[in-house]
Amino acid sequence: MLELAILGFLYDAPLHGYELRKRITALTGHVKPVAESTLYPAIKRLEKADLLARATQPGSVAAPRHVLTLTETGRNELCRRLAEPAQRDITDENRWFTVLAFLRHLDDPSAQAAVLRRRLAFLEEPASFFYSGDRPLRAEELDDPFRRGILTIARATSRAELAWLRATIDSLDAGSP
Amino acid sequence: MLELAILGFLYDAPLHGYELRKRITALTGHVKPVAESTLYPAIKRLEKADLLARATQPGSVAAPRHVLTLTETGRNELCRRLAEPAQRDITDENRWFTVLAFLRHLDDPSAQAAVLRRRLAFLEEPASFFYSGDRPLRAEELDDPFRRGILTIARATSRAELAWLRATIDSLDAGSP
DNA sequence: GGAGGATACATCGGTATCGATGTATAGAGG
DNA sequence: CCTCTATACATCGATACCGATGTATCCTCC
C-alpha cells in the first residue's frame, strides 16, 4: 500500500523523501498515519528493486535531499499493480482508496473499468458483519445499537459507492466503445 | 485489533480457536481476512499475558480442542481497551468497526458515549484526502474522476455516520441523565 | 544570542502479520 | 476403499511496520 503510494506520487514528478511523506500524510494520514521509520525503509526496498533511482542533491536545505525518480521498471510496476491489484486492495477500503487515488495513471480506460468492476463485484455480493447461521443479518434485526450502527454506516457507504461505480464504469465504457 | 476481537468474542462465551476464527472471519473477514498463522500466536500472546485461560478438551472432534475462557484480568483489559481506544482505533474504519462491534460490553452508557464522541470529534474536523496548499479540496474541484469518487464516497460515509453518532449519543445521554 | 521548530534523513529493536507447510482425525461421496 | 473436505491446531521464515532515538542544518522569534 505504502509502496503503491510512493510509486504513484513519483509517477507525476520526482520528489525527495520528506516531501513524499507530506503527500502520503495528506492522502491517508488522517486515517492511518505513516511513520518515518516505515517510509524510508520502503524507499530503500523500492530502490533495491530498481523501481526508483536516487539522486543526492546536496546543500539546498538542511540535510542533503535524496531526489527520487521513478525508473522505467518502476513505471511499469506501478501500472501492473494498478491493473492487477491483490484482492486485499479491492476489499479493504484503505487500500482501495489508494488504488483509486492513482488509477488515472493507467492510460487504458477499459483497464480502469476492469478494476472498478472488480470492486463492483465485491460490493454486490451479499455480505454482512453479522450472521444468523449463514444468513446475513440486517440492521433492523440487531438489538445492539452499536452493531446496528456498523450496518447502517456500511450500507450508506455501499450505496454511495455502488452508484458512483456504475456511473463511472458507464462513462469509461462510453468513452472507448 | 485482532486481540480486541478475540477478547470481545470470548466475553460472551468460551470458544475454541477454530470457532473464534470463523467468527472473526464473519466479522471482518470479507474486508480484511485473518490468517490462521496470525490467530494462533495472538491467542498465545493473550494466554501468556494471563488474559485468557486454555482448557484442553480431548476426543470430541478431530484434533483436541483448546477451549478458551476469558480471565478476570482479560475482562478488565477488554473494558480498558474499549473505554480508552488508541487514536488509530478511532480513525481507521477497520479498527473502529471492531471497537463498535464490542462496545456494548462497556456497561457504562456514559463511557460508551465518550468513545462515540471521540469518533464524532474526528469526523467533525475538516479533512480531505487532497489539498491545495492547506485548504481541503472538494470533490467538485478535482479533474480526476477517481479522486472525485474517493471524496464522494467518503462524504456519504461521513454523513451517515455523523447522523448515527449524534442520534446514538443523544439516546445514551437520555438513558443516563 | 539562544531556544525552538521545521527540514531531512537514518538506525535499531521489537512485534504483528503473512504465506507456506505440516499433522491428525472424522465424515461425505464416488 | 479411497479421496476430498472440514475440523483443529501448530511451526517457521520473511517482512512490514512501529516507536524511540539520533544527527545535522536552517530559520524565526524573542
Automatic annotation (TrEMBL), chains A, B:
Gene3D superfamilies: Winged helix-like DNA-binding domain superfamily/Winged helix DNA-binding domain (1.10.10.10)
Ranges where the Transcription regulator PadR N-terminal domain occurs: 6-78
Record-linked InterPro entries: Metal_resp_DNA-bind_regulator (IPR052509), Tscrpt_reg_PadR_N (IPR005149), WH-like_DNA-bd_sf (IPR036388), WH_DNA-bd_sf (IPR036390)
Cleaved signal peptide residues: none
Any Pfam family hit: PadR
PANTHER family: CONSERVED PROTEIN, PADR-FAMILY TRANSCRIPTIONAL REGULATOR
Protein known as: PadR family transcriptional regulator
Organism (species): Streptomyces albiflavescens
